[in-house]
């Protein structure tokens, strides 16, 4: 099942197009994508037997499949090779920061750069579908609605400025949290713990790895986070980026206006964004 946000309305994407959930459920669900996630178990039961009427659609009208999460968690240094290229040892526990919801944007369109050094970070994003508190690793996938592509776009000058790093602010400018194009349920994937992830700039591949290289897997992240906080339906977890970011390149490389940033994860579709000059 693929849940998407088409011009602000919750839809299910099939091979034949997009089915409007509010229309096909006769008002039982939707049209707000967040309202579907709030009743995820009930919605999945309905969707299994629903008579859908998909129609062709314009992908450029897709917004972030989750646009108003209560919480956004992000994980630093969660791929072995990325930790190595950054000069850090493998962490013993997940290093967590937040992104702010105002940074979210859809899977296609323009992203305005800001002054400084703007970097890319392709990421697998987890969407929570069931409230989670004190979850054990072996039960963690039961709390996942689905997975989607993400980019944790980062302005490195602010991020690394002392005396304390500013991860959350540097990674939360408008448009610095694109996700999409849709949320894919884990049952659609042959192995949700082993998905190829890639990022390209103007067609040049800069990142390629597999989520099997995560230091802390999706279930481990949910277990660690839910030890401390309650996870709610619609919450997002940016699970970390693989090696190949611009900060670690020699010489360092950063995004420039006019470049096209493409992000893809096996089974989850693809995002494409054009970088534009900073806005006044």
UniProtKB/TrEMBL annotation:
- Any one of the GO BP annotations: carboxylic acid metabolic process
Q: Which organism is it from?
A: Gordonia sihwensis NBRC 108236
Name the Gene3D superfamilies for this protein: Fumarylacetoacetase-like, C-terminal domain
Q: Which UniProt keywords are listed?
A: Hydrolase, Metal-binding
Pfam families, per database record: FAA_hydrolase
Q: What is this protein called?
A: Fumarylacetoacetate hydrolase family protein
What does the record give under GO molecular function?
Answer: hydrolase activity; isomerase activity; metal ion binding
Q: Which residues form the Fumarylacetoacetase-like C-terminal domain?
A: 72-275
Name the lineage: Bacteria, Bacillati, Actinomycetota, Actinomycetes, Mycobacteriales
Q: Which InterPro entries match?
A: FAH, Fumarylacetoacetase-like_C, Fumarylacetoacetase_C_sf
**Which family does this protein fall into?**
Belongs to the FAH family.
């Amino acid at each position: 099942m693929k849940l998407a946000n088409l011009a602000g309305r919750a839809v299910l994407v099939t091979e034949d197009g997009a089915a409007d959930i509010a229309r096909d459920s006769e008002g039982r669900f939707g049209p707000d994508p967040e309202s579907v996630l709030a009743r995820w178990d009930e919605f999945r039961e309905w969707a299994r037997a629903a008579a859908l009427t998909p129609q062709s659609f314009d992908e450029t009208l897709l917004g972030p499949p989750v646009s108003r999460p209560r919480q956004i968690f992000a994980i630093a240094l969660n791929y072995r090779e990325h930790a190595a290229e950054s000069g850090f040892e493998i962490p013993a526990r997940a290093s967590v920061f937040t992104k702010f919801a105002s940074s979210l944007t859809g899977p296609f369109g323009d992203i305005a750069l800001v002054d400084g050094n703007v970097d890319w970070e392709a990421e697998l994003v987890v969407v929570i579908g069931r409230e989670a508190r004190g979850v054990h690793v072996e039960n963690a996938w039961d709390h996942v609605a689905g997975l989607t592509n993400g980019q944790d776009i980062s302005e490195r000058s602010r991020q690394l400025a002392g005396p304390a790093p500013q991860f959350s602010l540097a990674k939360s400018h408008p448009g610095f949290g694109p996700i999409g194009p849709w949320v894919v349920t884990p049952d659609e994937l042959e192995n949700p713990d082993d998905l190829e992830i890639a990022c390209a700039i103007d067609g040049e591949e800069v990142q390629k790895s597999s989520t099997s290289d995560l230091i802390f897997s999706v279930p481990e992240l949910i277990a660690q986070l839910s030890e401390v906080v309650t996870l709610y339906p619609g919450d997002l977890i940016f699970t970390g980026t693989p090696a190949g970011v611009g900060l670690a390149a020699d010489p360092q490389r950063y995004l420039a206006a006019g470049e096209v940033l493409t992000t893809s994860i096996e089974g989850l579709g693809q995002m494409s964004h054009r970088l534009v000059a900073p806005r006044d």
